[in-house]
Amino acid sequence: MNEVYITKSSVYLPNEPINNDEMENYLGLVNGKPSKAKALILRNNGITTRYYALDKNGKSTHTNAEITANAVEQLFDDQFTRDDLQLISCGTTSADQIQPSHSSMVHGLLNNGKSIEINTSTGLCNAGMNAFNYAFLSVKAGTVDNAVCVGSERFSAWMTADKFNHEVENLKQLEEKPIVAFKREFLRWMLSDGAGAFLLQNKPRENSVNLRVEFIDFYSYAHEIETCMYSGAEKQEDGTLKSWADYPSDEWLKESIFALKQDTRLLDEFILKKGAQSLRASFDKHNIKPEDMDHVLAHISSNYFKVGLKEEFAAVGLDFPWEKWYYNLSEVGNIGAGSIFIATSELMNSGKLKKGEKVLLCVPESGRFAYSCALLTVC
């Protein structure tokens, strides 16, 4: 088995940062009125700026595939050209189409003039880590010498007012039942667009910061807990999901079948607890200690969870001092499958890393409560 190194990383964030007061200029007003839920949600999530692949008319400026390809393009240089690329592995929640695969569309945009292996991971926040794992294992096993993995999202196109107006017209519940407004709008004020990419190689790059990948672990709790975050389906009273394909087409818009929804009750009950449980299992599996970690990068959807996550980790014997944590949620927003790539790239290019330091990555996914973690060594 080969050693595997992140030898270069990149970030692509579309357009200019958008502050909280500007959001509805891009996403639009639902039913022509400012949101009642927006201020509360923003106060709790602590996000101050984010990025949208939209102009002020709500028109798309980039596809997800274009955002992803722009991140990949930044990895090419004199030492690694587009013709050197052997595998691209992409993870996203928000592909531009159901078929063909997201990686197929990205490869088409790269125009590298040769056939390569592609892989697409779907799902929610762990889609990026699954794409990372596929690339990692491919280089480790020696089936390829290099691979590019990317996590990306283009959520803004899902959050424009026109996606919400129809249900307002039909149900009139945003005024009659404010809790419906909160549940429908919760994610509207959380999500952002962008992509982060890693170049993985079986040898470190000279005169550069390299991160050796020690392991990537995954844990699912779907056998214990019902679905929390979903799209393309509707949750039934017994907790099961009814697929979009089982609804008449005239119900798709009326019932907001394709809207991204989240059961906030389940989120609050399980997201931190199961995250701590999974990380404890990983530390025991690899016989590592919390004091060995120098940097802790945890993907969170909201700053509301920041203190609680630290406390839950500490409760299972993983007490990381605040100075070791690295967060960028307030500045870039929640970019789902791309978030951990972007945070890692920022840290990797910050000039703060020293040889021998350990970098821990932690990613939760509330879909049906799945978690991943990875350990990297600076070299």
UniProtKB/TrEMBL annotation:
Keywords, alphabetical: Acyltransferase, Transferase
InterPro entries from the UniProt entry: ACP_syn_III_C, Thiolase-like
Pfam families in the cross-refs: ACP_syn_III_C (PF08541)
Organism superkingdom: Bacteria
Gene3D superfamilies: 3.40.47.10
Transferase keyword on record: yes
Keyword DNA repair carried by entry: no
Annotated signal sequence range: none
Listed SUPFAM superfamilies: Thiolase-like
Domain Beta-ketoacyl-[acyl-carrier-protein] synthase III C-terminal as annotated: residue spans: 284-364
Entry-linked PANTHER family: 3-OXOACYL-[ACYL-CARRIER-PROTEIN] SYNTHASE 3, BETA-KETOACYL-[ACYL-CARRIER-PROTEIN] SYNTHASE III
Protein name per UniProt: Beta-ketoacyl-ACP synthase III
Lineage: Bacteria, Pseudomonadati, Bacteroidota, Flavobacteriia, Flavobacteriales
